[in-house]
UniProtKB/TrEMBL annotation:
It comes from Actinoplanes xinjiangensis. This is 2-polyprenyl-6-methoxyphenol hydroxylase-like FAD-dependent oxidoreductase. InterPro entries: FAD-bd (IPR002938), FAD-dep_Monooxygenase_BioMet (IPR050493), FAD/NAD-bd_sf (IPR036188). SUPFAM superfamilies: FAD/NAD(P)-binding domain. Coiled coil: none annotated. Residues 62-80 have a biased composition (Basic and acidic residues). It holds the Pfam family FAD_binding_3. Keywords: Monooxygenase, Oxidoreductase.
């Protein structure tokens, strides 16, 4: 009799888990609360380890064909001078791909799964399955039900803006660091420029209907590529979200439930690794279950393999976020940033 896996969440981690488990013979049902895959979204960086996971999922070729490869980038000051060079490890370059494009590729590869849109799960224990995979994101109800309100997502102290500009093709892969704020620009498929910005701010510090003005004040006088992007941005093209993280969990498993992606280890976006780690989690979970005699022992192996790694990454992302919000002693900050790039 085929084992049955129920997956809560049909985003990047959930679809990746559906593919990985389905390839190993599991019957898979995916419960997604939204009515459809998103039609809009900004770029994600697929680092080499994530591309290897995508290869395991038979989706690597499509991501490489669709995405924009980049082997290096820069960190600059607002006047355009260079602070440090961003380089990828040997092997694959980073491939920049939009969230909708990546989800479309994963959805196509998960064709054997029973994907149910507009089907939220409020109580994971109600699912009749041998395995439950919680891929329900940073505000995971599953995590809170399993571990309690102490493990609810917390505001990181930062806020972020992001968006795309159509018809502005770029080859630039750069982050510009100012006094407590930063602005990034990358390519995106479809002749678009992807951009993002971040700053330290209390939760809820939004400017409804005036986000463009707020960004232009914040980054006034910054050199290209920041200035031309902000000149082209429209109010409707801005997404503004506070950044939330999860406290370190005592385990990524509880009974027959495994947490993956942001449900397990939501981190700040400063390393650009959130989506990557969700893909790697999914492949690691399927591998651990395949190599273990029971579901329980497979889940324990998954927890041993992934929790230490992702906790280190979350700490590194938090440290990078704090560094980007430094407002004084900027030459010292820039020196630390250069040293971190050399050590990466």
């Amino acid at each position: 009799m085929r084992r049955h896996a129920a997956i809560i969440g049909g985003g990047i981690g959930g679809l990746a888990a559906a593919i990985a488990l389905g390839n190993d013979g599991w019957q898979v049902t995916v419960h997604e609360r939204d009515a459809a895959l998103p039609a809009t979204g900004t770029a994600l960086g697929m680092w080499p380890a994530a591309l290897r996971a995508l290869d395991t999922l038979t989706a690597g070729h499509a991501v490489r064909e669709t995405g924009s490869p980049r082997r290096s980038g820069e960190v600059r000051r607002p006047d355009g001078s260079r602070i440090a060079t961003i380089r990828t490890p040997p092997g694959d370059p980073i491939h920049l791909i939009s969230r909708p494009a990546l989800l479309t590729i994963l959805h196509r590869a998960a064709a054997t799964a029973d994907l149910r849109f507009a089907d939220p799960v409020h109580h994971p224990e109600s699912l009749a399955a041998d395995l439950v995979v919680a891929a329900d994101g940073v505000f995971s109800h599953t995590r809170e039900q399993l571990f309690g309100p102490a493990y609810r997502a917390r505001h990181s102290g930062g806020t972020a803006w992001r968006g795309t500009v159509d018809g502005m093709e770029t080859s630039t892969f750069v982050e510009v660091w100012g006094r407590g704020v930063k602005f990034g620009v990358t390519p995106q498929e479809g002749s678009r420029t992807n951009w993002f910005a971040s700053a330290g701010a209390p939760a809820g510090s939004f400017h409804p209907g005036a986000e463009v003005s707020a960004l232009r004040r914040m980054f006034d006088g910054w050199a290209a590529p920041v200035r031309p992007v902000l000149e082209a941005v429209t109010e409707a093209g801005i997404l503004h979200h506070d950044v939330y993280v999860t406290p370190p969990l005592p385990s990524y498993v509880s009974g027959r439930v495994a947490l993956i992606g942001d449900a397990a280890h939501a981190m700040t976006p400063d390393l650009g690794r959130g989506a990557c780690e969700a893909l790697i989690d999914a492949v690691a979970l399927a591998t651990a279950l395949r190599e273990s005699p029971t579901v329980a022992s497979g889940l324990a192996a998954y927890d041993r393999r992934r929790r230490p790694v992702t906790r280190r990454l979350a700490r590194a992302a938090a440290a990078a976020g704090r560094l980007s919000r430094v407002r004084h002693a900027l030459p010292v900050r820039d020196g630390l940033l250069r040293a971190s790039m050399l050590a990466a």
